[in-house]
C-alpha cells in the first residue's frame, strides 16, 4: 500500500495511545518489527505510514520523503520570485517566512533552496533533486510537521499551499522483542475520528504481512506535544558496529515540577536500542533526569531544555548535562602506608 497525499483540512495535536498484544507465534521467524499506518478520513483510507526504516523529517512536496541531496549539484529551473515570499509552519506553532532576494527577477531552484536554509532559523533543510525543490524539517520523527502556509513564491517553487497539505515525519518501526507481548505507540497528532492499521515487517528480506483490520485509538489526557522534547542516544560497540538491544535507562527523580496543570511524576523509563543502535523517548521540557546505560557504571544528569526551538537532544551530550563527563563509579579501596625500609 502506498502513501497518498493528505487532504484532510485539519489535524489535531491530541495524543492517542495505541496498545498492542502481539504473541511471539504471530511474528517469530518471519518478521522483526511492526509499523503503524493512519487514516485521517475513514476506515477505507487513504492511509499514511507513521513508521519507516529510520526516523524521517517532515518533507514537502509529498512523495519525496526518501530523496537525498545529489552528489552533483542540481540547479533546477529559474522562476521569477525575487521580492516574493514563502511561508512555512513547523509543529503548527513555529512560523518561518523567507523573502527571496537577487539582482534580477529570476532565481534558480538551487538559489531559492540556499535562501530557505539561510533564513530558516536552523529549522529547515532544502535542496534540489531531479529538478524538484525539496524542503524538510531538521527535526525527525512523527512529532515533526511541516506546512507551506502561503507566500506568492511557493506555487512557483512547486510547494503545495492548500491548508490540508501538511507533511508529517515518521518514527522508526517498533522493534519486536522475543518474550515480549505488550507494545505501545503514541500518535502525537491523533483524533477520535482517525483509523489505524498495523502490519509486520522483515528488515532483512524487506517483506511485509497483510494489514490488520482498521481500529481507533484512545485519547491520552496529558501535555501538549509542544511541551515535550525528543531525547535520543546512538550507540556502537567496541568495533564501531550499531549496538542493538542495549538497555538505556532514564530516571526521573520526583521534584513536584509543574507543567501546565500537571505535576511531573513517575520513576524510570527503560528503552532498548534498535538495529541501528538508536533509542529515543519524548520527555517533559524542564525536567531533570539521570540517563544510564544498562550494565555500565556510568550515568549523566541531563536537564531537558525549555526552549521549544530545540526539538531533540542527544541525551549523552555534554551540552545538556550538568556535568561534562560521565559520573564513573570509583571503588573506595583502603590502602596503608608502606612500613618496610
A few lines on this structure:
With 341 residues, the chain is mainly beta.
Report the end-to-end length measured between terminal Cα atoms: 83 Å
SSE sequence, one letter per element: EEEEEEEEEHEEEEEEEEEEEEEEEEEEE
pLDDT < 50 stretches: 1-9, 324-341
Broad shape = globular
> Main β-sheet, in a few words?
5 strands, antiparallel
Give me the count of strands: 28
CATH class type of the domain at 224-341: Mainly Beta
Average of per-residue pLDDT values: 83
**Portion of residues in helices?**
under 10%
Any idea what the CATH architecture of the domain at 224-341 is? Sandwich
- Assembly type of the chains comes to single chain
The amount of beta strand, in percent, is: 35-45%
Radius of gyration: 23 Å
> Helix/strand-derived class?
mainly beta
CATH topology of the domain at 224-341: Immunoglobulin-like
Q: What's the CATH H-level homologous superfamily of the domain at 224-341?
A: Immunoglobulins
Number of DSSP helical runs: 1
Give an overview in words.
3% of the residues lie in helices and 39% in strands. A hairpin with a 5-residue loop joins β26 and β27 (299-303). The strands form 9 sheets. Strands 2, 3, 15, 17 and 18 form a 5-stranded antiparallel beta sheet that branches. Among the domains are: 56-168, no CATH class; 224-341, Immunoglobulins (Immunoglobulin-like). The radius of gyration is 23 Å and the shape is globular. It is mainly beta and 341 residues long. It has one helix at 109-118; strands at 14-21, 33-39, 47-49, 51-52, 57-60, 78-79, 85-90, 94-99, 107-108, 124-129, 132-140, 145-150, 166-168, 171-172, 174-175, 182-190, 195-202, 207-208, 218-219, 228-234, 247-252, 258-259, 262-263, 268-272, 278-284, 288-293, 299-303, 312-314.
Amino acid at each position: 500500500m502506498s502513501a497518498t497525499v493528505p487532504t484532510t483540512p485539519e489535524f489535531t495535536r491530541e495524543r492517542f495511545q495505541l496498545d498492542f498484544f502481539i504473541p511471539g507465534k504471530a511474528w517469530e521467524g518471519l518478521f522483526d518489527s511492526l509499523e503503524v499506518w493512519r487514516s485521517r478520513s475513514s476506515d477505507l483510507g487513504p492511509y499514511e505510514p507513521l513508521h519507516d526504516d529510520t526516523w524521517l523529517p517532515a518533507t514537502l512536496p509529498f512523495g519525496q520523503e526518501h530523496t537525498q541531496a545529489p552528489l552533483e549539484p542540481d540547479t533546477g529551473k529559474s522562476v521569477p520570485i525575487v521580492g516574493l515570499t514563502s511561508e512555512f509552519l513547523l509543529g503548527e506553532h513555529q512560523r518561518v517566512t523567507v523573502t527571496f532576494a537577487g539582482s534580477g527577477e529570476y532565481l534558480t531552484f538551487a538559489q531559492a533552496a540556499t535562501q530557505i536554509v539561510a533564513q530558516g532559523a536552523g529549522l529547515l533543510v532544502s535542496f534540489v533533486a531531479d529538478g524538484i525543490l525539496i524542503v524538510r524539517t531538521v527535526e525527525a520523527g512523527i512529532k515533526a510537521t511541516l506546512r507551506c502556509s502561503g507566500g506568492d513564491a511557493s506555487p512557483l517553487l512547486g510547494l503545495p499551499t492548500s491548508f490540508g497539505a501538511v507533511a508529517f515525519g515518521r518514527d522508526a518501526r517498533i522493534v519486536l522483542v522475543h518474550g515480549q507481548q505488550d507494545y505501545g505507540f503514541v500518535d502525537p497528532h491523533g483524533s477520535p475520528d482517525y483509523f489505524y492499521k498495523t502490519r509486520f515487517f522483515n528488515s532483512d528480506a524487506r517483506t511485509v504481512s497483510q494489514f490488520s483490520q482498521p481500529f481507533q485509538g484512545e485519547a491520552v489526557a496529558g501535555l501538549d506535544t509542544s511541551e515535550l522534547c525528543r531525547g535520543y542516544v546512538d550507540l556502537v560497540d567496541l568495533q564501531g558496529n550499531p549496538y542493538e538491544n542495549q538497555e538505556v535507562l532514564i530516571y526521573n527523580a520526583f521534584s513536584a515540577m509543574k507543567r501546565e496543570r500537571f505535576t511531573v511524576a513517575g520513576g524510570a523509563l527503560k528503552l532498548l536500542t534498535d538495529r541501528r543502535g538508536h533509542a529515543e523517548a519524548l520527555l517533559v521540557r524542564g525536567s531533570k533526569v539521570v540517563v544510564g546505560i544498562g550494565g555500565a557504571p556510568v550515568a549523566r544528569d541531563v536537564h531537558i531544555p525549555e526552549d521549544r526551538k530545540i526539538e531533540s537532544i542527544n541525551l549523552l551530550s555534554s551540552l545538556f548535562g550538568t556535568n561534562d563527563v560521565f559520573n564513573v563509579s570509583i571503588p573506595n579501596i583502603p590502602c596503608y602506608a608502606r612500613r618496610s625500609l
